[in-house]
Write a structure and sequence with these properties.
about 110 residues; alpha+beta; Rossmann fold; two-stranded antiparallel sheet; single chain
Amino acid sequence: MSLVGLKNKANDYPSKLSGGEQQRIAIARALVNQPLLLIADEPTGNLDPVISEEIMELFNHINHMGTTIIMVTHNKELVNSMHKRVVSIEDGLIVNDVKKGGYDIHV
């Protein structure tokens, strides 16, 4: 809970947490066993831009701690701001794989 900045919310019910707080709690639960891989499906889909950026900074921190993160998103701005590996898949086939890429599909 400390890693995601919500140690003070440990005893709160989910209904009392904001969407961003709920998302960070979900990330904390996923990290309990210190996984080598974290898969995130649209982790910022229902969040405002400021909270989305905070979640991405958290993922970056988690990645620097040694956890590989595979994330699916349609948020072009977030993808482009991260400068991480981007693999684009269309109809089940990899159509683009750029080591420090952005959200730019060339088919």
